[in-house]
Write a structure and sequence with these properties.
By secondary structure, the chain is α/β, with parallel strands linked by helices. It is built from 8 helices and 6 strands. The protein has a 6-stranded mixed sheet with strand order 1-3-2-4-6-5, with helices on one face. The protein is globular and about 50 Å long. It binds 2'-deoxyuridine-5'-monophosphate and iron/sulfur cluster. 2'-deoxyuridine-5'-monophosphate binds next to loops. The site of iron/sulfur cluster has 15 residues, from helix 2 and helix 5.
């Protein structure tokens, strides 16, 4: 597999019946009035960004009217607007907005994936769905290979997804299992002994950003720290 082949295989995955139903139902019937004239992607969201990245950002799952509409990670909702503006301020993105295919957005040094790739009802995937999709996350981690230096997770579901995926791949994970927090860090080791730093950051969801729990300077600080 290459990353492009992986993306193609992921985008037709139907392993989680509840999520397949939700992503397709929203795409067919559940559209917001403001998007009523737009075609919906209605599939799993493939990873996006620099295929030679040394840094991976792991989110939670596509938003029903965001990635599930546009087909690109963090694109078409308030979470994504907050994230891409920060990626642009910190030099990882060539423009501050992500609209969708053909908008010219390019990331440098960063790739973005979701821990669960299909939009879940109420943004809440079940433990079984998280475990099932961790297999895809593991493939993305493997394909970035020894270039991968840092994995930053937005929220606890991404954090735990990375620990599940890397444990399955035979990586060395600290014991006791490191806990998610804003600014939390842990060092993982690949089977070949290559170190990968895990960094936690509050999720960019409106629940956190509208309340000031996660501010633009806080996100910029974490993003800038990934380069060190
Ligand atoms: O066709 P391509 O240049 O490999 O780009 C595929 C896809 O990945 C495109 O949507 C741009 C994005 N991308 C990026 O964001 N950063 C890169 O360094 C290379 C590609
Ligand atoms: Fe497949 Fe992941 Fe979607 Fe489940 S959530 S159907 S494993 S892509």
């Amino acid at each position: 597999d290459t990353l492009a082949e992986l993306d193609a295989r992921v985008s037709v995955c139907r392993a989680c019946p509840r999520l397949v139903d939700w992503r397709e139902t929203v795409a067919r019937e559940g559209r917001r009035a403001s998007f009523a004239d737009q075609p919906y992607w209605g599939r799993p969201g493939p990873s996006f960004g620099d295929p030679t990245a040394d840094t991976l950002i792991v989110g939670l799952a596509p938003a029903a009217n965001g990635t599930n509409r546009t087909g690109r990670m963090f694109t078409g909702d308030a979470s994504g607007d907050f994230l891409y503006a920060a990626l642009h301020r910190t030099g990882y993105a060539n423009q501050p907005t992500s609209v969708g295919a053909g908008d010219g957005l390019r990331l440098t040094g960063i790739r973005i994936v979701a821990a669960v790739r299909c939009a879940p009802p109420a943004n809440a995937p079940t433990p079984t769905e998280r475990a099932t999709c961790a297999t895809w996350l593991g493939r993305d981690l493997e394909l970035l290979g020894d270039r991968l230096r840092v994995v930053m997770t937005l929220g606890a579901i991404g954090w735990n997804g990375v620990l599940a995926a890397t444990t399955t791949l035979g990586w060395t994970v600290p014991k006791p299992r490191p806990k998610f927090g804003h600014g939390a860090r842990a060092e993982l080791l690949t089977p070949s002994g290559h170190p990968v730093r895990l960094v936690g950051c509050f999720h960019v969801s409106p629940h956190n950003t509208y309340t000031g729990r996660l501010t633009p300077p806080m996100l910029d600080d974490v993003l800038l720290s990934l380069r060190n």
